[in-house]
Amino acid sequence: MDFVLKAKIRLGISACNFGGKFRYNRVGWDRVEALGREKNEYSWTPVCPEVLAGLGVPRLPARLSGGSGDDLWAGTAKMKNRMGRDISEAVKTASMDCLDALRRADVDAFLFMEGSPTCGIYRTTLKDKRFGKPPGVFGSLLLKERLFLIPAVDLECPWKWWDHTRRLHAFVWLKKLTIKSKKDLYEVWHMLKFMCQEIDRPLSDEIGQSLAAFPGKLVSPGLEVWRDHVLGLLRRPSTLKRIESVMSKYYAHYRKTFGLKTLDVPAPLARAGKVAFVAELTRLERKAAQQGYLFAGRPVVYRPGR
Predict the structure, then answer these.
(1) CA-CA distance, 207 to 218, in Å (whole number)?
(2) How does pLDDT run across 44-70, given as a tens digit for each residue?
(3) Which of 66, 71, 75, 119 has its CA 20 to 30 A from that of 131?
């Protein structure tokens, strides 16, 4: 079985993080530039539901009233601007239009503006770091899609981006993979289980144990339920402490396995230390891939087709 992605991963992104000054106060960031040449390994589709809703730039800030974005879609909450104007229907329509655009672009992941009452997933306000009433209006739709979700600000955090990309590659690979037999299924799980165990060991063990109940001839509904469980686990947010631990473990493993002469990189504690650490770890991973080795820390690699 080939554990390689040959096509560019298609990413959706909140447009205010793609260089557009689309925020209510005419602010925007080109966070993709932080990736350097790596940004060319992806195809990007920026969207902004609030601008598409006709709210303009600049515009009055908005907030969710009476519940979350989920509640708004259920008809029990509203989205209002600072003057109290109900903009719920306009934002709902624009959110659906943006989702349609992402589907037409065949995106597999979305980098969202956390803290936005529209695009936020886990927070819908930036003020005083309060969570607000998550998810946002558009965020509610994104959570229901088969998408890998990443806070756009993590583009500027090398160690978080390292963790996102290795799980993203596995997510997209599994999402598109044709599994023909129980043997294929066991081979898939053998490569992905270590990454899943890092995220949630008890749930990972349950997913692995469920393979025993599969019939010899795979039945599509059961297979897709299993696939969705694994995809859901792969896209679950991680913690910085866990990422640091995983990085250190695999860095040591690469060095020991290959006996490579590498820089003596200190443990990733301070920010500067993490940047250097990720750069060195990435170098080792590329070295491993060039030699035809795939490890549990990054079981799926991207190699563009010629």
Answers:
(1) 16
(2) 999 999 999 999 999 999 999 999 999
(3) 75
* CA neighbours closer than 13 Å in the CB half-sphere of residue 23: 16
DSSP string computed for 151-217: EGGGGG-HHHHHHHHHHHHHHHHHHH----SHHHHHHHHHHHHHHHHHH-HHHHHHHHHGGGGS-SS
Question: Do both 113 and 123 map to the same domain?
Answer: yes
One DSSP character per residue, 192-205 reads HHHHHHHH-HHHHH
Same domain, residue pair 173 and 260:
no
Residue 248 has pLDDT above 70, yes or no: yes
Separation of alpha carbons 243 and 164, rounded Å: 10
**Beta carbons within 8 Å of 276's beta carbon, 6+ residues apart:** 263, 265, 266
196, 230 Cβ separation under 8 angstroms: yes
Range of the domain at 213: 158-234
One domain, residues 15 and 150:
yes
User: What pLDDT score was predicted for residue 73?
Assistant: 98
pTM: 0.91
* The pair of three-digit structure tokens given for residue 57, joined into one six-digit string: 């730039």
Instruction: Write down which residue in 106, 123, 156 finishes a domain.
Output: 156
Contact 29/16 with Cβ under 8 angstroms?
yes
